[in-house]
Design goal:
The structure is a single chain. The protein is mainly α. The chain has one domain (24-97, 110-208). It contains ten helices and no strands. The protein has helices spanning 2-17, 21-33, 35-58, 60-66, 68-94, 114-126, 129-138, 149-177, 179-182, 185-208. The chain is globular. 33% of the residues are buried.
Length: 210
Amino acid sequence: MITTILIFLIPITLLTLTPGVDTMLVIRNTTRGGWWDGAATSLGICSGLFSHALISSVGISVLILQSAWAFGLLKILGAGYLFFLGAISLKDAAVNDKGTSNQIETKTDNNFIARRSFKEGLLCNILNPKAIVFYMAFLPQFIDPSKPAFLQTFFLAGLHFIIAMIWQILLASMIDRSKALLERKMIKKSLNAVTGIVMMIFGAGLLIDN
């Protein structure tokens, strides 16, 4: 069992550290509302892992993957949500605030709303069809058929939850420590613009990915 867990931890850690839409969302929200915003977003993202574990454990993923229209609808919803978040970031980047480009904004932490951050993270993860595919294809390799699949699946998802939370909270901390630099209007606008574009690229990738 210990060997199986160690083998599981290596690829899941590499996957977690690989930049993706979750990473961009944590960066975006930390920039928006500080460390707590990023941490709440991370909690939402990682909580979504258990929904994929549940779907995988009861075999619903098979139905989704075998149903072209259901999987296609999930891709559209996921892509649409990424476009929505991207559009918000681009809108924030386009706001024509008064002041010089080097002026530092001091209202960042006032933008933190825990429920909003958690919901954004949760929806971003749940509406990601690639997460369902990954859990359906990857987790069964570490499931002992002689033992309850439900408990094993949630245990592995729990390990993934811990690793992802640690990484994303560290990421939020690094971004928050750079607050003095990131709160300069020109840099903040540029980061919002880049984040918005990248999220839309991820969304487009979901739509064209077969």
